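User: Structure please.
Assistant: Input sequence and predicted structure:
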Amino acid sequence: MQPRTHLPTWAFLFLGALSFTTVATTPAGKLALVPRADLCVTEGAISELPGARLGVSVPKMRAYLNAPTPPVVEAQFTYLGSTGREARLGSGELRRQFGLKLRAQDACNLVYAMWRIEPESRLVVSVKSNPGEHTSAQCGNRGYRNIKPRRSAPVPALHAGDAHALRAEMNGAALKVFVDNVIVWEGSVGADALVFDGPVGIRSDNARLQIELRAGRTLETQTGHAPGCRSGSEESE
């Protein structure tokens, strides 16, 4: 019989870290490139660049995919710095950020995975839930709840010219967020995030970006999954 090997404490910590830095289980190759024509822009503007890339140079950008897909979305993006003009959030806070939207039913009910760039670098997952309210005039900036992860890891500080891949996957209430195929956030967003449903999308505040956006293959239309393109101030979250 072989003697049992006793690993030192540092080895267990190292193995635990390896188990957390899990690579995405759904390869990006299974996601389809999203062209500008398939996006509904509810605020700001998105330009079409060569190679099906998307360009953002406005202080506020909000958009969603105008088709039903699984709740998986990935943005391979290059951060180009400030837009030059600064716009404050509804709370009055000045923040630079870029992120992904899931289950985006409308301006009042959706899930966010936001990469905050300035004034601090961190990945924040939020649920915006306002039952019975559907327009920006109804809910404003109410209903946000930041979700504490079960496990998390820091995201790198972004500098102009940096390129990364940000990806979010939902399976029921379970959410995983990846940066460059490594998990940086994992946990449950709660049952209230399953009360509403909708497409995936993107959002930015005060960040200039070039993006290759990918999403899951389009599903057959289901009630409540394909909202159609509804743009204008009432639809901006």
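Helices lie at 9-20, 136-139.
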